[in-house]
């Protein structure tokens, strides 16, 4: 274990002796809700300001051509049971920053956490990284203020980069979107503005056990942290924490080598075609546009809506924007099992239309509730029944976590972590493979491998 | 060093005691030229059979919609000095196989090398991997024979996969093309057909010192081989071989950690935009179509031509197809330098329109001769003068190597490997970084990082 990993692990194991006592974390969070005034109202598309449907393509765009747009894609694939469909998709070609500033305080690394309002958030405010900024944001296309702390990420000459990589977002909703996930460490004192506070990693992880408190952006950044093994740090707790730490140690034996996993993944990408044609939103087949939304004829999947927002603590105090509203809750579950004493995660190679590279490594189960509730028995996603019928003692983690509130309207997914029992099948379908946590972390490092659902679920597992 | 790496290294160091004596390699190669009859003729587009310009888009396509097509792209980027241009590009969405079968013979790993004809090849025949097959090839869209040895790559239950990953091809010519680079090892005897023979890796590397003998496909597959360090194998030779082996050992100290390199690369991808819009070939601005070619108004860059081919040893004995003809020779050079006794390569983050992911890691210099011969002094590519003025004692490798003869008409690039002298600048531009050979190999493993020019040049460096 290198020094950096040890520092992260120590922070992850620290609840007491933090700048803010752990008992005060949730009260501070709720105080931020009370301190601000927010208002969100669904509006007809005609009341959008600076946003509109392009006369030619029907795409929903900002007048500057920046931020994001809602366009159409035509998908052809030999993966899954539907060979061809059209759908709206969010196109946001700019890479934004998702970044934490960290600092050692009394020997323990603290993260500068932001209580951030996003229009689509459940709870309106959620805990976020220090900085969340698209390029349109920080080049100030909206002519508002520059986001706080941006300067620390632009000029990194007085800080140390702990990691810095591009990571994907939801392939079912975004067209090849990625963000720059970065953690920097400063040594000098920096101002702590209103709505920001220092927390240890352990405190952030603890908070993820509550529903919808830590936002997607914070979870994906945290997922990029490698912990190495546990040598040099005493973990007194038994159970999942110790088991997870053994799985995070790259020196421990895995069922498959990284090269064998790359070969397996190569076979998946070789086998499955994904043809994506960008088409005007106007001609997206099976979807209709009303005054209030763009929706699928069946009422399923998601719709695009418009809303007006007022907030007293954002760079701009009121604005209108489109949001994507899911019609079904999602289910995201990892099944894990020990092989020769080392916990392995059952990873799925999953094709989604907006993926950067055909398939990404996904959790054991990742689906919409509709896809199994209404499906014929033979069409139910693999392992869904195992997950839904798990005994309480097998369930290590079960919370609702939110998707990005800047784009999605109150979207939450059930996140589950299930320990497989003796009855779990030995054989898995050919697009599944067992991997240790250390291996998942290694693939996260080289980006474009592990999808956002798998990363976020992995990041929410606490050691204590 | 693991066992697999040791086996590859032993093969790379073996010239004597191989199945075919090294003295017979080149005679065998020339005997294959003599054994076959090939004919290539440039024809007008109107004489193409089964290929034609689409009435609507003007794209040049096969009637089956398979193989590849010549389409247009509109490029917008803030990288380099030209912010916007149109160009034709080869679109070949199918992933093909580039694969070697290997087998231990008398304790040394041998590669089953093919003397393969491709219409655009200089020398018509070049040494190639055992199998080179697009999906259209092996699903037999052309209704010819199935390629020899395909079955070993489809059903791998009787062989061991030594590696298997997707690797990119030229980003200036192909739209996000990748191939599956794979080496398998068999234990049982297999037939050796006409035009195939067993060679050690050392013999293949030796052959790369000649111009245009080993094709691009063989070189890219070989570039994926990791050698580890040299422990357990005695390398008696001093000089570049020993120095290269130290650089290939991942345990030796590098100037930058892999994570620091990922961070540097993230910054490059963050900074540079690459907007690619697929457009019909018909409207590609600045290019014109005549009876005989599609070419740039300036006569520069490349043109698309048509040719008729006759061959007696291919799956189909005569056919017509388009080829891309370069108008300028390219220059590909790595500058390397020792840091604390370990050889480092000066790697460039280079944006090319067909790149899968904006930028790839490229050699120190990668350009067309025209781009420096005609350029104003301030527009000459970095390090071009250092490379062109290198003293003979600094030049470790200087040959002409071919691009893929199935798509390119007699295209060759000068490949150079230069040892930096004391006079080499300490400071390099911000899109350059020093990496060891072991680090380049690690990034090749996780694909989409190292471009085909860097990989092929790296693969041609022999230890002996």
From TrEMBL, chains A, B:
<protein>
    <recommendedName>
        <fullName>dTDP-4-dehydro-6-deoxy-alpha-D-glucopyranose 2,3-dehydratase domain-containing protein</fullName>
    </recommendedName>
</protein>
<dbReference type="Pfam" id="PF03559">
    <property type="entry name" value="Hexose_dehydrat"/>
</dbReference>
<feature type="domain" description="dTDP-4-dehydro-6-deoxy-alpha-D-glucopyranose 2,3-dehydratase">
    <location>
        <begin position="259"/>
        <end position="461"/>
    </location>
</feature>
<dbReference type="GO" id="GO:0016829">
    <property type="term" value="F:lyase activity"/>
</dbReference>
<dbReference type="InterPro" id="IPR005212">
    <property type="entry name" value="EvaA-like"/>
</dbReference>
<dbReference type="InterPro" id="IPR038153">
    <property type="entry name" value="EvaA-like_sf"/>
</dbReference>
<feature type="domain" description="dTDP-4-dehydro-6-deoxy-alpha-D-glucopyranose 2,3-dehydratase">
    <location>
        <begin position="23"/>
        <end position="225"/>
    </location>
</feature>
